[in-house]
Design goal:
- It is a single chain.
- Helices cover about 40% and strands about 15% of the residues.
- Strands 5, 6, 7, 8, 9, 10, 11, 12, 13 and 14 form a ten-stranded mixed β-sheet that branches.
- The chain folds into two domains: about 100 residues, Enolase-like, domain 1 (2-Layer Sandwich); about 230 residues, TIM Barrel, CATH 3.20.20.120.
- The chain is globular and about 60 Å long.
- The protein is an alpha/beta fold and about 350 residues long.
- It starts with a strand and ends with a helix.
- Helix 12 links the parallel strand 11 and strand 12.
- It is built from 13 helices and 14 strands.
Length: about 350
């Protein structure tokens, strides 16, 4: 990545991706990609995708049938981690192939309409102030009215420095902060006294992602909304969050929530609860999914796959544009793929 992602847990300088091409007999291929985060997990994830794909040869191109078969294979291994990521990638590729076969954008196959999806600029930079300001100015040129910055790398004073550096560029635009699970519940409650005076858009994942009770405790005490969800492993985790009262905004990640199929189930749970849904990375497919979600709210613009795509997602006046072509709209830039390929 040209600009590394700085987090409270360290710097991420590469985006290890597994590109998936699903061959559908008698029809167009389906395409998707997933991310291993760590380079040491890239080859195991690639091999897992290939092994699962081999087990599906000859099966009907039906998302629910594919999901049932894969979940049956995972009954003893478990549906989280690399298994869940691989299954989600295959699910997205199946839906892409179906939409391409029908000549429809994915959102229309799902019953939604192609429309601009409101987005926000998600900064990769935590500091220093000059670097924050530089990236914020670049994002502001895309017309965003809302931003998010990662914090939690030190004291509350450092958090405030980052927030103020961003606001120095974006003025009165909404600002959210992401702690990437770096605090305990007790530490979070201590910082709330300061953060609640900052009138933030939301506070994201202040404590351990699977601590729904802890997040509920924080949500009860905070005047600032709490956002979690990028580490929900399937719709059941969203349901647990709703039952605990753990968040005010939900943020499914397409490759962890269960692909398109998992997202649709999550959106169905969010709708009666009135839980606004934003997205976590994967902006290409997320634009379709948010546009088809009853409580779809905001897309996170943090582009990782753009360098290997023929046409990266387009942002216009702060909105993500759903491409007009069939499927998700992923077309590999083969020259770039060859350049970045891990042999």
């Amino acid at each position: 990545m040209e600009r590394p992602v700085q987090t409270s847990g360290g710097e991420i300088s590469v985006a290890p991706l597994v590109l998936i091409d699903l061959e559908a007999e008698g029809g167009p291929p389906g395409r998707a990609y997933v991310r291993s985060y760590s380079t040491f997990a890239l080859e195991p994830l690639r091999q897992l995708v290939e092994n699962l794909g081999a087990a599906l040869v000859g099966d009907p191109l039906t998302p629910l049938g594919v999901e049932r078969k894969l979940q049956g294979m995972f009954r003893f291994l478990g549906p989280q981690g690399l298994t869940g990521i691989a299954a989600s990638g295959i699910d997205m590729a199946v839906w892409d192939a179906l939409a391409r076969a029908q000549g429809l954008p994915l959102v229309e196959l799902l019953g939604g309409a192609r429309k601009p999806v409101p987005a926000y600029g998600s900064l990769r930079t935590m500091g220093p102030e000059g670097a924050i300001a530089e990236e914020a100015r670049e994002l502001a040129e895309l017309g965003f009215d809302s931003y998010k910055i990662k914090v939690g790398g030190g004291s509350i004073e450092k958090d405030l420095e980052a927030i103020n550096a961003l606001r120095g560029v974006v003025g009165g635009a909404r600002v959210a902060v992401d702690y990437n699970q770096s605090l305990s519940v007790t530490e979070t409650l201590g910082r709330l006294r300061v953060l609640d005076e900052e009138h933030l858009w939301w506070i994201e994942e202040p404590t351990r992602a699977d601590d729904f009770v802890g997040h509920a405790t924080i949500a009860r005490e905070a005047r600032t909304p709490i956002c979690i969800g990028e580490n929900w492993w399937g719709p059941h985790d969203l349901q647990k969050s709703l039952e605990a009262g753990a968040c005010d905004y939900g943020m499914p990640d397409a490759m962890k929530i269960g692909g398109v199929t998992g997202w649709l189930r999550a959106a169905a749970l969010a709708e009666p609860a009135g839980l606004p849904l934003t997205s976590h990375v994967f902006p290409e497919v997320s634009a379709h999914l948010l546009a088809a979600s009853p409580t779809g709210y905001r897309l996170e613009y943090l582009d990782h796959a753009g360098p290997i795509l023929r046409e990266p997602i387009e942002i216009e006046e702060g909105n993500a544009l759903v491409p007009p072509g069939p499927g998700i709209g992923l077309e590999w830039d083969e020259d770039a793929v060859r350049r970045f390929l891990v042999e």
